Amino acid sequence: MAARKAGPATSTPKKAVPTKTKKAKKAASTKPKKTVPSATKAKKAVPTKPKKTVPSATKPKRGRVEAEQVAPVKAESKRTTSTRISNIRAAANHLVLGIDIGGSGIKGAPVDLHEGRLANDRIRIDTPQPSTPEACGVVVNDIVRHFSTMTAANGPVGCTYPGVVWDGITHTAANMDQGWLERDADAFFEEACKRPFTVINDAQAAVLAEIRHGAARGAEGLVLMLTFGTGIGSGLAYRGVAVPGIEFGHLRMEGNDAERFAAASARDRENLSFKKWTERVNAYLARVEAMIWPEVIVLGGGVVNDAQRWVPYLKTRTPVVVAELGNDAGIVGAAIAATTQPNRKR
Q1: Are 290 and 258 in contact (CB under 8 A)?
Q2: How far apart (Å, rounded) are the C-alpha atoms in residues 129 and 131?
Q3: Integer CA distances (angstroms), 9 to 2, 17, 245, in order
Q4: Angle between helix 48-70 and helix 2-45 axes, rounded to 10 deg
Q5: Which of 96, 97, 66 is nearest to 84 (CA)?
Q6: For the chain, give me the number of helices (H) and strands (E)?
Q7: 17-67 pLDDT, tens digit each
Q8: Global pTM?
Q9: Nearest residue to 118 (alpha-carbon basis) of 338, 340, 329
Q10: 96, 101, 102, 107: CA torsion to nearest 10
């Protein structure tokens, strides 16, 4: 009995095997036929998907640009890579104010440090006479307030001074009131304007600007900057670092300081032609070249606006170039110093 029961049990799988095999074969044969065209459809869909995604990928980029233009403050973290830096920074308070104090005028403007140019028209106010620190402080504060909406509320301000400056302290006053002697100009302007100030020599600021963005860009050796104005400012830099305390304008010539003999103010005061005045400049440059051997001499100051009338007549051993930033080099350099110039007092 048991064997008979086992017989059908063993025969049942034998019958089920072909049944399942037939179904499996049918399923296997039908599935590939159905999947082949579906796979073909997928292949056809592949080129259509990129066509749809290309315009959709472009739209977000346009949307981000428009958002930066409408609300540029949000683009703050991207300011170093953006190519549209000027307008964005102007609205987002990323500009640095530069002020240039001279014997005849005080100029200022916000500076775009990445492009090395003024971000707005500069303003110029005559230097007060007498040019006491208090009187100049009023003018400087007026310039700071004039551009207050274009710079950060408590942003740094760079300022030049036409004399020797060490760590913000003015040590000479050849063309300024004697009240500037041994004055802590940084602290004075910070108190007057309620902004952080960095005060450096005017020619030192100019050589910083020309090395980064101007005629001395790429110079690896000694660079001498000479500015011809009320006096003769001198800035010296080596391998991109400006050296303070250089005063070649006070070399002795004709029994007096060289700037009394060869500055642009001497040409105006004595009504000299450019040819006659250039003879004096050549004599002065010969004295300078007897002491140092720079790689290049950069000429600055307001008189470079007439460079074609006197620079071709210069006779020097050293190559001479005209400042590319012109009379704005001091302003640009002052702004650079406000963010890079170390001050040992701080």
Answers
A1: no
A2: 5
A3: 11, 13, 112
A4: 60
A5: 66
A6: 10, 16
A7: 444 444 444 444 444 444 444 444 444 444 444 444 433 333 333 333 333
A8: 0.68
A9: 329
A10: 50
